[in-house]
Amino acid sequence: MDQDPAARAEHDARTPPPRGAHRVLVALSLGIALLGAGLDQLTKAVVQDTMELGQTIDVIGSALQWHYILNSGAAFSIGTSVTWLFTIIMAVVVIYVVTLLRKVRSVWWAIALGGLLAGATGNLIDRLFRDPSFGMGHVVDFIAVPHFAIFNVADSFVVCSMIGICVLLFRGIGLDGLPTQEKESPPAEEAGDA
User: Fold this and answer.
1) What is the mean pLDDT of residues 36-62?
2) How far is the C-alpha of 59 from the C-alpha of 63, rounded, in Å?
3) Cα distance between residue 37 and residue 43, in whole Å
4) Is the pLDDT of residue 9 over 50?
5) pTM of the model
6) Domain contains 194
7) Range of the domain at 61
8) Does any domain span residue 2?
9) 107-129 vs 19-50: helix axis angle to the nearest 10?
């Protein structure tokens, strides 16, 4: 017996994806994270191998430059004396995002969390393994645009992913891909009895 398309679509939206689909979404997130963190580390290695610390190269005039610096703090070099704190925060973010992946049932959330994981991992690698010491490493930053902090590929992944996460939250889309109001409101039969 055929259902009408609207009823079938609503049933499909409420039915969780098969277990294999969840594995694909986790693989998508981890793939984005690996590629993003790899791209971040590759670009940082190229900058370190081809530029002198403090050197600036015009890419698109003064609108986009490569300006090689080492950053022991956060954006705009805030908190340069508490590098260890940023290392701990990044490690917590990485662990938290990995635990969230167990709940992901949405392609958009998988992409956003994969990007966030890429950025946090890329900068965490710097904090853990770059000079001056383990856990106190300075992050390689090199992308310079006017009137903004100098940043790197990992930072770009974090910012773009956080924008995506904000859009998903603003639209009320949960990790499972369903609108959050559907989960919060009681079923129609129970609401009518009250």
Assistant:
1) 98
2) 8
3) 10
4) no
5) 0.81
6) no
7) 19-169
8) no
9) 40
Dist. CA 100–CA 24, nearest whole Å: 15
pLDDT digits (tens, 9 = 90+) for 121-178: 999 999 999 998 887 889 999 999 999 999 999 999 999 999 999 999 999 999 988 8
Closest CA to 33 of 123, 149, 106: 123
Give CA–CA dist 173/63, Å, rounded: 36
What's the CA gap between 27 and 31, in Å, rounded?
6
Cα–Cα distances in angstroms (integers) from residue 161 to residues 107, 178, 181, in the given order: 13, 19, 23
Residue 112 has φ and ψ, to the nearest 5°, of -65, -45
Q: Which residues are catalytic?
A: 141, 155
Tokens 């009250």 appear where? 194
Do residues 164 and 170 make contact, with C-beta atoms less than 8 angstroms apart? no
118 contacts 37 by C-beta, under 8 angstroms: yes
Q: What is the 3-state secondary structure (H, E, C) of the chain?
A: CCCCHHHHHHHHHHCCCCHHHHHHHHHHHHHHHHHHHHHHHHHHHHHHHHCCCCCEEEEECECEEEEEEEECCCHHHCCCCCHHHHHHHHHHHHHHHHHHHHHCCCHHHHHHHHHHHHHHHHHHHHHHHCCCCCCCCCEEEEEECCCCCCECHHHHHHHHHHHHHHHHHHCCECCCCCEHHHHHCCCHHHHHHC
Domain annotation covers residue 10: no
In a domain, 13, yes or no: no
State how many domains the chain has.
Answer: 1
